[in-house]
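At this stage, I wrote out one protein, both as residues and as discrete backbone shape codes, and that material follows here.
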Amino acid sequence: MLAVSTAWNADRWDDGRAIAEEIERLGIRCLELNFSLTPKMVDDIAAAARQLHLTFSSLHNYCPAPEGFNRFDAKPDCFSLSALDEDERKRAVELTQRTIATAKKLRARAVVLHTGRVEMEDRTRDMIRLANAGEGETLAFKELRANFVAERRKKSRNFFNQLIRSLESLVPCAEKADIRLGVENRFYYREIPDVEELKTILDRFSSPYIGYWHDVGHGYIFEQLGLTGKEEFLRLCGKRLIGMHLHNVINLDDHQAPMNGDVDMRAFKPYLNDRVLKVIEAHSKVSAPDLMKSVLFVHEVLGADDAGGRRTFLSGIPPQTQKAHRLSAPRTAAPSARGYRLRLAPRGLYLLRQDRCRRALQPDAAGRLRHLGP
């Protein structure tokens, strides 16, 4: 299953219907709901989805956002599942249970979890600044990394034990709701889990309702900073993979369009199958044309195919146009998305091949792109 996260446009709208409609106009049929949505926004997106025949792959905890917060401040760690303070930890569990219930109501398949943090100063951004300044091999960088890793290891045990207590409440809840929990690898190194902690979680909980959610950008940044080996999370925990956040990285800045950046998306295909959810988690810095080109790119590179996928995305384009523009190329072929330019215009969306005549495409009433002629 391939979906697009509402993280792409949720910051632009306070109206949930507008969020759903903007994504649907691009021919995208499956959504992941991100964590900055109020209860009313979630209800409005759900109502729009019913009318537009959209589906949901997953929800990112906490969804809806907790009351009492400005929605832009309601981060997934505003209440920590690993908190030493019992009131905070129990509140995190309650809010996660609400997300699970919302996922069931929306007929989603999974909830993406941030599983807390070790309370200490985080130095991930400091390491990124040094690496981008060309100092990633200096003694100062290596000392910073070594001290950071050692401090985290020293302080992590009690926080990790609190997380296990939280999961002991959440896994039975997920089983009852028939919703899978995906423990996500994180951007900040102080956050839980690191590789060994993830292995421990998956060994402790054998239930198929909890597994690993791989964030491509986070994993790549950890590799570049020397915090993990290449694809180490996936090599050790890929057999329990539930889903994957797809986005690219430029100069250690993540959530770029999947087709643009330093990460080779082909590397992830061996870990994917029909049961693994695939979500493009691009942020608002990605343009609508680049998002659409990335949908085609992901389908060609990773072979995603589902109700919100390539077949629906292309169903309104005549076969001769698909052939002329190599849109139906075998999935093992080199990606051709880079050969296109997409331009939004009042008539619809224009797909232009740099060495061919242009074709105009416009969403029809069902949201599919239709050919308007040369």
